[in-house]
Amino acid sequence: MNETAMQLILAAIVVLPLLGSVAALLPAPPGLKGKGPEQAVLRHGVTVTGAVFVLSVVLAAGFDQDDPSAIQAGTDVSWIPALGIRLHLGVDGVSLPLLVLTALLTFLCAIYTYFAASSRGETPGPPVPEGPSAKAFVALLLVLESGMLATFAVLNLLLFFLAFEMVLIPMYFLIARWGGAGRQAAAWKFILYTLLGSVIMLLGFLLIGIKGGTFDMVALATDNGSGLTRSVQVTAVLAIGLGLAVKTPMWPLHSWLPDAHTAAPTVGSVLLAGVLLKMGTYGFVRLVLPIAPEGAHELAPYLAAFGVVGIIYGSLACLALTRTGAKGDLKRLIAYSSVGHMGFVLLGIATLTPTGVNGALFANIAHGLITGLLFFLVGSLKDRTGTTDLDQLAARDGGALYGRAPRLGGLIAFGAVASLGLPGLAGFWGEMLAMFGAFRPAEGLSRPAFLTFMALAGFGTLLTAAYLLLVVRRVCMGPRAAEEPRIPDVRGYEFAAWTPLVVLTVLGGLWPAALISLTDPAVQKLLTGGR
After folding, report:
1. Is residue 145 very low, low, confident or very high in pLDDT (cuts 50, 70, 90)?
2. pLDDT at 121 over 60
3. I want to staple 1 with a disulfide (CB 3.0 to 4.6 A). Which of 62, 149, 212, 395 is the partner?
4. Which residues contact 455 (CB under 8 A, 6 or more apart)?
5. Which residue stretches of 284-405 are H helix?
6. Phi-psi region of 347 (alpha: psi -120 to 50; beta: other; left: phi over 0)
7. Within a 10 A sphere around the Cβ of 335, how many other Cβ atoms?
8. H/E run at residue 49
9. Average pLDDT over every residue of 253-277
């Protein structure tokens, strides 16, 4: 495929959801007919997100896998000359997998929402006081998708900041308007934390842009920090890293995440865990490592330490939620598990080695697939039982989901063992490579310290296995009481929405080279500035 066609496809991927969000708000979107206006606008969401996903697959098919370190489908035109801002887009082996993952998860969320609403005969999510409209829901979903895709496609620091911020408002309203109990407080906590971090991150971007003489990420990465003094690099990494750490989220800046996940509607949780968290870790790899390598080297041990604390803390919090009588919420538990899993990603990045960074990028994709699936499953379980409280699920069902809905129970067990890192599934490789990277970190980093981090991370994997197996035992296993009726098992539209995630989780576990062969050359180039 020629470069011009690739450029047009990438531009369409970023812009099409934004145009689709405008069309969703029109009185009658052209060409959409259905049983009612709500079905029509939900179908519009499926159509737009489906088109974006197809374009992302075409882009991936046309991507030159012989040179994944090169920026491909690149567009670089002047946008705001007075500020030196250029409209610079492009993808490489680091950003392409995240772009496709974003398009896939958003499409699956649109399918799930459309058929779930059709089967219930109502708008997405639980009713709220003013009765939120399907038009607003679809428009917000599409704006969110556009911002997420742009984050992985732009190659200008200021454009990255705009895309990074673009996702906040739609996610705020998805939580505040379509969420469950405590949605208003959770939404405010989400946006205040992330906005504060973003303001500090912007200061870091301005410092780099002014001192480096450009906001172009490719040019800055090629310079590999040569135009920035050590003190500037350390200051910039502190500012940028703080903003990225909030979004990741890194302990102790994680406290917005459990509340947001607990209150968010199902599709909000899927996209929050599957994509928004990855925007933070992607920023560390795309921005911090190549643009300010001395600053990254100076602060890498602290990043690793915070990541490892997050692994242990997240696992212990999940174990506490599994205790009988703790009133542990299943969505809250998965949110805390994400703090632990993203700790492995931070540890891999902090090693500053190709092995560790490739492991971090692999763990990013695996976490998006597996945790996206888990939030779909927990949302479906709540629709059937009316609760995600572990004590109520165990008491009401006798811990017998296998007996009441065997396919749903089997999928929850599959998601749990994939999340704990079972060999042969995608969750295994990223965490293993992150620990391998910690075994032999980059030159100049303290090997005894990183060996300690590796040992603690290994202990974290044991804690992860413990709480996830406890969840499976309490929710899925045990004899079914005679008076307990069966609940609906996996429906057709749920099977359609979840199967791609299951298949890709298995495929990633059995054929990790498919992803690593894309990321490794690009990682090598980012770590060396192309030398």
Report:
1. very high
2. no
3. 62
4. none
5. 289-291, 293-322, 330-350, 354-385, 390-397, 401-404
6. alpha
7. 28
8. helix 37-62
9. 89
Quick one: the chain helix, strand, coil %, rounded to 5?
75, 5, 20
CA 406 to chain centre: 29
Continuous segment of H or E residues that includes residue 409? helix 406-419
Q: What is the pLDDT of residue 181?
A: 78
Asked whether 90 and 12 are in contact (CB, 8 A), the reply is no
Tokens of 264: 């968010």
Say how far apart CA 2 and CA 325 lie, in whole Å.
61
φ and ψ of 89, to 5 deg: -120, 155
Nearest to 99 by CA among 69, 66, 137, 63: 63
Token pair of 75 as six digits: 């567009």
The SS3 assignment for 74 reads: strand
pLDDT, average across residues 390-399? 65
Mention every residue, 6+ apart, whose C-beta is less than 8 A from residue 522.
68, 69, 92, 93, 94
Tell me the average pLDDT across 449-459: 94
Examine the pLDDT at 30 and tell me if it is beyond 60: no
Tokens of residue 423, six digits? 């060999």
DSSP secondary structure, 138-179, as one string: HHHHHHHHHHHHHHHHB-BHHHHHHHHHHTHHHHHHHHHHH-
Cβ distance 437 to 357 under 8 Å? yes
Tell me the CB-side half-sphere exposure of residue 519, using CA atoms within 13 A: 26
Q: How many helices (H) and strands (E) does the chain have?
A: 23, 2
Cα–Cα dist 267/261, whole Å = 10
Cβ atoms of residues 101 and 275 within 8 Å: yes
pLDDT at 395: 61
205 closest CA partner among 157, 252, 165: 157
Instruction: Note the pLDDT of residue 128.
Output: 31
pLDDT computed for residue 36 by the predictor: 61
Looking at every residue in the chain, the average pLDDT score rounds to 87
Other beta carbons within 10 angstroms of residue 423's beta carbon come to 9
The answer to whether the peptide bond before residue 249 is cis (omega within 30 degrees of 0) is yes
Looking at residue 489, its pLDDT comes to 79
Please return the burial class of 462, using the count of CB atoms within 10 Å of its CB with bins 0-12, 13-18 and 19+.
exposed
- H-helix or E-strand spanning residue 44: helix 37-62
